[in-house]
Amino acid sequence: MAINLQKGQTIVLDKNEYELSSLTMGLGWDVARTGGFFGSGKDFDLDSYALLLAEDGKLKNPKEDAIYYGHLRSGDRTVVHSGDNLTGEGAGDDEQIVLKLREIPEKYQKIVLGVNIYQAKDRKQHFGMVANAFVRAIDAKGREIAKYSLSGDAEYDGKTSMLMGEVYKYKEEWKFRALGNAMEATLQEVVNSFKG
After folding, report:
1. Which listed residue, of 101, 108, 111, 153, carries a Cα 20 to 30 Å from 129's Cα?
2. pLDDT for res 154
3. Helices (H), 139-196
4. This prediction's pTM
5. Distance CA 127, CA 105 (A)
């Protein structure tokens, strides 16, 4: 049975319980529709991303180690993005990032997963307008391991990027931590904040 995580909670990805040859991180969200109450008049386009970090928690090669709609896979194809979902409509995952845990090079010790609102400032959009946001971990057999949900909390007003969770290696074990850290930043600014 999948675990519902709270902000800051960490679980071990147990290789004895789950098939961890690959781990799919599914990210999803619902958003306010155009016009109406929020008045942005534009559709939302949320974009998921993964940042492949070294042991010191930094991006060593941002051009190669930031995986998003404009760079869908790592050079060795151990981290692969499903592609851009422009609307977030429908049930289930809106975007997925697949991690081939057994093949990820040792130089990567942490993978941060986030979601960014495309052109948020121009469209006057923020995460206070996003509902039912989640990140979930699914093993290679399609079993949900854990899920972290967050929604339109007042603390997210004005924030345009969200670090949803992180998968990291500790003493030869992979772990998953729910983050829920919101910030007012473009995707490029988030990437810059992790540069080594």
Report:
1. 111
2. 77
3. 187-193
4. 0.88
5. 33
> What's the order of all strands across the beta sheet hosting 110-117?
10-12, 173-183, 161-170, 110-117, 46-53, 66-67
φ, ψ dihedrals at 188, nearest 5°: -60, -40
Q: Are 137 and 166 in contact (CB under 8 A)?
A: no
The widest CA-to-CA distance across the chain, in whole angstroms, is 51
The number of beta carbons lying within 10 Å of the beta carbon of residue 55 is: 12
Q: Identify the residue whose tokens are 């977030």.
A: 88
Q: Which of 78, 148, 157 is nearest to 114 (CA)?
A: 148
pLDDT < 50: residue spans in the chain: 34-40, 87-88
Domains in the chain (CATH in brackets) are 3-193 (2.60.60.30)
What is the pLDDT at residue 38? 46
Q: Quick one: three-class SS letters along 87-141?
A: CCCCCCCCEEEEECCCCCCCCCCEEEEEEEECCHHHHCCCHHHEEEEEEEEECCC
Cα 60 to chain center, whole Å? 19
